[in-house]
């Protein structure tokens, strides 16, 4: 076959594979197409080649050899030291997103070899009995090590109807056993996060397998006369019914005890001198999730501010709902903190943030991040320049209008323009201007399926990166669960 015919054949095959990739109904179908495309583009060969400026490959190979040596030698003490040194040396370079920008199916094989050996070493130390070290003592050692290392969190942005896309993102992660136990949400992201964290594993499986059971009738516009008299555009009672139907009325503590997942919901104060709050089982255990979600959805002008509700356990009527901080009103968490990075890190010891971003006002500014081609850098520069000008203009305006009645609105706009909307790993809703007409409308069954499909397809290309960069944290979790089981069995035998 001539060179020209071979190129024509490859072009046709690539076009068909890209169509199949876009139409994939499962991760397995997507991965099969991605593998064939990587093979066609020469990316599989790139993965096999060890030499790269992005990694210190000889040192990684040496650490793989040492971990293998001491594991087979049966020397857990030395293996522990080598593991600590290896992770400290290489975690930074292994987190480089450029490692995952070439091939669709993953990065250099040496990365997988290193992480596999780390996992084997951790499991060996966990499972191998050590003289003078009880199971309970080993459990405490692993818990301290996990606390030092940290764990991942998933953050779901706001996004109105676009936020249904988070359902597809979380379902894709769940089905690959990659859904973090710590999940935060703002606005629509709070509804999805609460639906997940208020269900145990069996209930969550049912939800993901049967998305048609989701209550979709959340939005109702007031008539013009009602908007003028009420001061907001949409029916909050309808939204509250939607929230309660999908997530129930549990408190943060009750949901955590039921699911084992830590739900975090961002709410912003209506008073300008108050700071945003992150509500969870640690900071507000008795607050009801439905009232927190309702507050996080209270976009000024769309819904009124909300008084949080909490469980009253002090008057003998367990479970009675009473106002929580009754003098305070709360609004959409996206206004001052769509993604509460620092607060999450402090409260839950987070070392890796996975962000699912679907905010309509953010997408135009971040949609060029992964563009390729001759003009991609210019589009990215133009977007960054516009964003910088908007932020600067709002900063100047808020200082000029410091005593005006519009000051709070300018402060909110400035906060929204200057906060960070990305994570260590960002899964992004694709910028599709034609969908903006649906952003404040109840989804049809077809729309629901479409948003879920978009969410899954946005997640699958990030799966290799997420799997690699959360492997150590997931192994810590698995080891600790096994040690807890063994420690409990030992206590029962000695009782």
UniProtKB/TrEMBL annotation:
Domain PNPLA: residue ranges: 154-345
Chain location of the short sequence motif GXSXG per the record: 185-189
Domain of life: Bacteria
Pfam families in UniProt: DUF3336, Patatin
Keyword Calcium tagged: no
This protein's record includes keyword Ribonucleoprotein: no
Transmembrane segment boundaries: 148-167
Active site: 187, 332
UniProt keyword terms in alphabetical order: Hydrolase, Lipid degradation, Lipid metabolism, Membrane, Transmembrane, Transmembrane helix
Protein name: DUF3336 domain-containing protein
UniProt source species: Marinobacter lacisalsi
């Amino acid at each position: 076959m001539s060179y020209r015919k071979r190129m024509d054949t490859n072009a046709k095959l690539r076009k068909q594979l890209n169509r199949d990739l876009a139409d994939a109904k499962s991760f397995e179908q997507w991965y099969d197409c991605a593998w064939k495309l990587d093979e066609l583009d020469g990316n599989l060969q790139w993965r096999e080649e060890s030499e790269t400026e992005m990694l210190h490959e000889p040192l990684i190979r040496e650490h793989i050899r040492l971990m293998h040596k001491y594991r087979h030698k049966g020397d857990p003490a030395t293996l522990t030291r080598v593991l600590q040194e290896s992770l400290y040396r290489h975690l930074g370079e292994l987190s480089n997103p450029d490692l995952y920008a070439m091939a669709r199916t993953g990065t250099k094989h040496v990365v997988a070899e290193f992480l596999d050996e780390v996992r084997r070493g951790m499991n060996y130390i966990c499972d191998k009995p050590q003289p003078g070290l009880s199971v309970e003592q080993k459990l405490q050692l692993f818990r301290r090590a996990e606390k030092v290392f940290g764990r991942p969190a998933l953050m779901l942005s706001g996004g109105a109807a676009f936020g249904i896309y988070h359902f597809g993102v979380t379902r894709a992660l769940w089905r690959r056993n990659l859904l973090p136990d710590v999940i935060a949400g703002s606005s629509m992201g709070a509804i999805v996060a609460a639906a997940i964290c208020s269900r145990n594993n069996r209930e969550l499986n049912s939800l993901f397998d049967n998305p048609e059971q989701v209550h979709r009738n959340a939005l109702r516009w007031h008539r013009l006369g009602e908007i003028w008299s009420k001061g907001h555009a949409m029916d909050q009672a309808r939204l509250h019914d939607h929230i309660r139907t999908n997530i129930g009325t549990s408190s943060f503590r009750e949901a955590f005890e039921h699911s084992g997942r830590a739900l975090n919901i961002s709410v912003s104060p209506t008073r300008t001198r108050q700071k945003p709050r992150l509500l969870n089982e640690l900071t507000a255990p008795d607050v009801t999730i439905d009232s927190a979600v309702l507050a996080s959805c209270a976009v000024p002008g769309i819904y009124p501010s909300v008084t949080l509700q909490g469980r009253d356990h002090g008057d003998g009527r367990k479970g009675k709902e009473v106002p929580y901080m009754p003098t305070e009103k709360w609004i959409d968490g996206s206004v001052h903190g769509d993604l509460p990075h620092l607060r999450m890190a402090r409260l839950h010891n987070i070392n890796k943030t996975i962000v699912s971003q679907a905010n309509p006002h953010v997408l135009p500014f971040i949609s060029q991040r992964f563009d390729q081609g001759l003009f991609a850098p210019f589009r990215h520069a133009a977007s960054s320049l516009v964003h910088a000008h908007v932020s600067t203009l709002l900063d100047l305006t808020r200082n000029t209008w410091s005593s005006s009645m519009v000051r709070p609105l300018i402060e909110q706009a400035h906060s929204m323009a200057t906060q960070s909307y990305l994570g260590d790993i960002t899964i992004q809703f694709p910028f599709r201007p034609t969908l903006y007409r649906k952003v404040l409308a109840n989804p049809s069954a077809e729309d629901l399926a479409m948003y879920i499909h978009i969410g899954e397809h946005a997640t699958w290309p990030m799966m290799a990166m997420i799997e690699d960069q959360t492997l150590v944290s997931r192994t810590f979790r698995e080891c600790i669960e096994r040690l807890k089981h063994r420690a409990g069995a030992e206590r029962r035998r000695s009782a």
